């Protein structure tokens, strides 16, 4: 659980709270787009939906506060935690997912190169496609997103919920 803030778009200096109370902040794998996200809901409203990119940096700015810039959303997010331990756990997971995002980006670029490079034609003239049904139809979205919404109860310790690449998502609570 963390208190969520965004930088004031006018001053670019002051923090504006986006939640009235501490909320669950989760890491999420979007299999449709092959990207990792940081998601947080306040009730039914998404207050964070940030795609993790390989060049993002999570910075601890105090013992219980950290931030990262999301250039796609044109904002800076800040998280206030109840303890230094929770902040450290979030920062560790941020690094893990940042690395996973880098690997996913490399893998998708390899696929793009394969699809944009003319393939060798077989004797029958067929061109082999590297795409599989799994790479076209994402299936995890429907199962993971409701789970993010369900877990709004406060917990004393962070829970271990699956990391997508190990089938155990993780969320900071």
Layout of secondary structure:
Blueprint: E1 2-7, E2 15-17, E3 25-30, E4 35-42, E5 45-52, E6 59-60, E7 65-70, E8 75-81, H1 84-116, H2 133-136, H3 141-150, E9 171-172
Antiparallel strand pairs: 1-2, 1-8, 3-4, 3-9, 4-5, 6-7, 7-8
In short:
This protein is α+β, with helices and mostly antiparallel strands. The chain has helices at about 85-115, 135, 140-150; strands at about 1-5, 15, 25-30, 35-40, 45-50, 60, 65-70, 75-80, 170.
Mean pLDDT figure: 74
Radius of gyration: 19 Å
What is the CA-CA span between the terminal residues?
A: 4 Å
Count of DSSP strands: 9
The sequence of SSEs as H and E is: EEEEEEEEHHHE
Number of helices: 3
Family: Belongs to the Homer family.
InterPro entries: Homer, Homer_EVH1, PH-like_dom_sf, WH1/EVH1_dom
Main location: cytoplasm
Keywords: Coiled coil, Cytoplasm, Synapse
Please supply descriptive tags for the structure shown above.
173 residues, single chain, four-stranded antiparallel β-sheet, alpha+beta, PH-like_dom_sf, coiled coil, Homer, 27% helix, WH1/EVH1_dom
Describe the structure.
- It holds the Pfam family WH1.
- Keywords: Coiled coil, Cytoplasm, Synapse.
- Its main location: cytoplasm.
- With 173 residues, this protein is α+β, with helices and mostly antiparallel strands.
- Helix content is 27%, strand content 28%.
- The protein contains 3 helices and 9 strands; from the N terminus they run ββββββββαααβ.
- The protein has helices at 84-116, 133-136, 141-150, and strands at residues 2-7, 15-17, 25-30, 35-42, 45-52, 59-60, 65-70, 75-81, 171-172.
- The strands form 2 sheets. The chain has a 5-stranded antiparallel beta sheet with strand order 2-1-8-7-6. A 4-stranded antiparallel beta sheet has the order 5-4-3-9.
- It starts with a strand and ends with a strand.
């Amino acid at each position: 659980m963390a208190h969520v803030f965004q930088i004031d778009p006018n001053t670019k200096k002051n923090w504006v709270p986006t939640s009235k109370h501490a909320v669950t902040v989760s890491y999420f794998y979007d299999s449709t787009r092959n990207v990792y996200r940081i998601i947080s809901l306040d009730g039914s409203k998404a207050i964070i939906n940030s795609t993790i990119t390989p060049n993002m940096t999570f910075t601890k700015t105090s013992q219980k506060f950290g931030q990262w810039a999301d250039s796609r959303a044109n904002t800076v997010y800040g998280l206030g935690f109840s303890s230094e331990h929770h902040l450290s756990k979030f920062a560790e997971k941020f690094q893990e997912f940042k690395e996973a995002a880098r690997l996913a980006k490399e893998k998708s670029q390899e696929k793009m190169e394969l699809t944009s490079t003319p393939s060798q034609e077989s004797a029958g003239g067929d061109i082999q496609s590297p795409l599989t049904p799994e790479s076209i139809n994402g299936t995890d979205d429907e199962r993971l997103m409701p789970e993010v919404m369900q877990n709004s109860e406060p917990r004393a310790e962070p829970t271990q919920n699956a990391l997508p690449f190990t089938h155990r998502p993780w969320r900071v609570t």
